[in-house]
Amino acid sequence: MYLNKAFVYGNLTRDPEVRALPSGQQVASFSLATNRTYKNKDGQKQEATEYHNIVAFGRQAEVIAQYMKKGRPLFVEGRMQTRSWESEGQKKYRSEIVVENFQFGPGGGAGGMGGGQGAAGEGNQDTPAGKAASLPADEIQYPDEDINPEDIPF
């Protein structure tokens, strides 16, 4: 069995660019920056930034383009793909992540949630948990009463 899966959580480095394919389907392309902190051989703290090319199609492209702007956080789940084309007699390559699911990060998008097919953040808004999940962190209301350990069923 083979597996081609990428999970990336980072900030947009530019606003998504949206265009239409000849079939009429929408395509959004953008990039995410991720940071990694590590210690070098001398024990000094170092930080490295990686940039990831991302492509979304269809409704996902429309939603991402509508709600996301440069600097906002986004979680992307997708597959790696490498495209090639010829330009000025030279063969060029570009590796990118094709979005399968996504979720807006804090402060990004509609209430901090987003999604695609089965993305986390899609829930029944009629349930108390669904309502709490759609509220920003500073608007969540916690119960006033203390929890009695004897009331916990396990």
Can you give keywords for this protein?
154 residues, OB fold (Dihydrolipoamide Acetyltransferase, E2P), mainly beta
What does this structure look like?
With 154 residues, the protein is mostly beta strands. The chain has a single domain, classed as Nucleic acid-binding proteins (OB fold (Dihydrolipoamide Acetyltransferase, E2P), Beta Barrel), CATH 2.40.50. The chain contains two helices and six strands, in the order E-E-E-E-H-E-E-H.
Structural class: mainly beta
Number of domains: 1
Radius of gyration: 20 Å
Largest sheet: 5 strands, mixed, barrel
Average pLDDT level: 81
Annotation field: number of helices: 2
In N-to-C order, the SSE pattern is EEEEHEEH
Strand numbers in spatial order across the main sheet:
1-3-4-6-5
CATH C-level class = Mainly Beta
Low-confidence stretches: 111-135
N-C termini distance: 39 Å
Overall shape: it is: extended
The total of beta strands comes to 6
The gist of it:
This protein has 154 residues and is mainly beta.
SSE arrangement:
Elements (H helix, E strand, L loop, with lengths): L5 E7 L4 E4 L5 E14 L5 E13 H10 L5 E15 L2 E15 L23 H7 L20
Parallel strand pairs: 4-6
Antiparallel strand pairs: 1-3, 1-5, 2-3, 3-4, 5-6
